[in-house]
Amino acid sequence: xxxxxxxxxxxxxxxxxxxxxxxxxxxxxxxxxxxxxxxxxxxxxxxxxxxxxxxxxxxxxxxxxxxxxxxxxxxxxxxxxxxxxxxxxxxxxxxxxxxxxxxxxxxxxxxxxxxxxxxxxxxxxxxxxxxxxxxxxxxxxxxxxxxxxxxxxxxxxxxxxxxxx
Length: 165
Ligand code: FES
Ligand code: FES
Fold this sequence. Notes:
single chain, 165 residues, alpha+beta, DNA polymerase, domain 1, 2 domains, 5-stranded mixed beta sheet, 32% helix
C-alpha cells in the first residue's frame, strides 16, 4: 500500500511554506531534505544529542522528535534564520569570538537553544545556561567555552537590546 503524503503549512524563518510531507517523517528530515536547510543536523535521531534543535513556536525542540505533521500551522526558526542582511546574529559571533566552535557539528543546535534561552531570560545565571543546554551534547569543547559564549551573547544583547530577535 502506498503511504500518502499530507499537506502542511508551516512558517520557516519567516517564509510560509506549503509542503506535502510523509506522515512518518520528522520535522528535522523535512527541514533538511525538503527545504534544503542543512544547518540543522541529525545525529542520534532519538532526542539524545540536540544537534537537530530548532525553535518551534518560541520553544527549543529536538526536531528529530517532532513529526513534520505536528508542525502544521506552527512557526519554525532554524539556524539559517538568524543572520540578517549578511550579518551573523550576536549569538553566532559570540560563539566564534569565545572559541566555542571546534568541529561545529553541535553548534547550530547550541546556538538555537541559546536563542530560546536568551529570548526568555536575557541575563541567565550559569546554572540556567547549563540547564538550557543540558540536552545539547558537544564532544569537542568541554562546554566551558560554550558557557562563556552564552554569557558573552547575553552581554552583547543587553548592549544592543532587541538584537537577539
Ligand atoms: S538528532 Fe535530534 S536529538 Fe540527536
Ligand atoms: S564543536 Fe564538535 S561537537 Fe561541539
